[in-house]
Amino acid sequence: MVGGNIIYFQMRYDSFREVEAGELPAIAHRNLIAAIDWVDHLFDIIDIQNLDDKVATVKHCFAPLMVFAFSVVTAKNAKQPDIVCVCNFGHVKRDCCLRWTEPYHFANRLAERSIDELISPFRRMNIKEEEAALMKAIIIANPCEF
Fold this sequence. Notes:
Elements: E1 2-3, E2 6-7, E3 12-18, H1 24-45, H2 51-77, E4 83-86, E5 88-93, H3 96-99, H4 110-125, H5 129-141
Parallel strand pairs: 3-5
Antiparallel strand pairs: 1-2, 4-5
Helix pairs in contact: 1-2, 2-4, 2-5
């Protein structure tokens, strides 16, 4: 699907197949587009049109929003305990950073830490879609420094 000058592909978090390392840049790109869309919609709701603020907000929220999104969806949809679902109909395994020479945004044991610190607790909480949407808005609006 094409929107303006931005090319979109459908975001669908499933565990049909294991993702290869070469697909990670496209996955990160699609998550960046999703963060831009979230920020744009949130700024429309609160009637702020400052482009510099939007850019700064996207830079701030991209990584936390991506990790939160794949963690919630994995907790809701995946039955396997040691995978992380990503937005291109695939998943990565817990040890992906060890098996790939270039793990991109899954370096530093991100998959393992997400499974242990987010996905498992979200499964126990049985987080609802409405709760996840509110948490995404909080992640975007929270201006803390990392």
